[in-house]
Amino acid sequence: MSVVDSAVERVADSPVVSKDDLPLLLVLPGLFVFLAFMLFPVLYLVYLSFTNAEPATLFQGKEQWVGLANYATVLSDGQFWNSMGVTWLFVATSVALKVLVGLGIGLVVTGNRVRGKRFMRALIIIPLGLPGIFTITIWRGIFSSAEFGLANQFLRMAGLDSIAWLSERWMAFLAYNVTEAWLAYPFMVIITVSALQDVSEELHEAAMIDGAGFFARFLHVTLPSIKRPVLFASILTAAASFQQFLIPYVFNQGGPSRTNELLIVYGYREAFRFQKYGEGAAIMLVAVAVIGVFMMLNVKKGQLAEGVDDA
């Protein structure tokens, strides 16, 4: 018996601590560390959002209480609503792309006629092991507006003109989506492959006996069987897309002319570029509130928590 096991047994046998309280006792140290590094920053952010905090007053207690003025300023700013709209559009398009890519690759690597599936699965998860900033920088070079950019080289090979990818709004937005899909597709593939492996072969065989083709089996057997895990993964990756900062900031800082400035980039710019920490804090809290409502509504509508209370 190890030292840890003997210590746990001694604690469990203690008259002060019952066995029912033991799990909570073991979780408390980690919970304390989590609260120390998460709860205090969030509470301080809430405080800053009600003040006129600036770099000169930060952590010195010299900021003045302004109430809801920061929120009123933010909600009346046209740039805020542009950022909110672009962010939701980015979430919708990037999630759709990630689901399609993940589902397509998942079907390939679980196909009965595909050889080398284990090797392919190992290659698929490689992007998960690379630093995000490294990958994004590489994709920025791919979408470079210069002639040597890889995307432009492919266009010239196809006899097309080069594109100023990061200087045109919707071309830059497309580049955001492609890069986001590359970063997130391994996660989607892992979830999709796990779900596809749990689809009953008997259902497929019964559908084949009834004369159903591949697409009919996919629509009426495969999709209903993998709906919940794929929906769960989509909600998680949608929340990540909503908080995306590195891609727009590294590519062109939300440009051109702030037209593609996602909400987190907008909050960062207000806080650190324009030195308005109070307004920046208000923007971030609005983002947190929107993400929280989005997650709760989707979990409830998708019935993803069904059966949790009964476990």
What's a concise summary of this model?
It contains 13 helices and no strands. The protein is mainly alpha-helical.
Tally of DSSP helical segments: 13
Distance between the termini: 31 Å
Could you name the CATH class of the largest domain? Mainly Alpha
User: What fold name goes in the CATH topology slot of the largest domain?
Assistant: MetI-like fold
By helix and strand content, what is the structural category? mainly alpha
* SSE string: HHHHHHHHHHHHH
**Helicity level, as a percent range?**
55-70%
Query: What is the molecular shape?
Result: globular
Strand portion, in percent?
under 5%
Beta strand count: 0
**Major sheet, described briefly?**
none
Uncertain spans, ≥5 residues at pLDDT below 50? 307-311
Rg from Cα: 25 Å
CATH 2nd-level architecture of the largest domain: Orthogonal Bundle
CATH superfamily of the largest domain: MetI-like
Description of the molecule:
Helices cover 69% and strands 0% of the residues. By secondary structure, it is an all-alpha fold. It has helices spanning 3-13, 22-49, 69-75, 78-109, 117-124, 132-142, 150-157, 169-197, 201-209, 214-242, 246-252, 263-273, 277-301. It has two domains: 1-49, no CATH class; 68-301, MetI-like (MetI-like fold), CATH 1.10.3720. It is globular, with a radius of gyration of 25 Å. It has 13 helices and no strands.
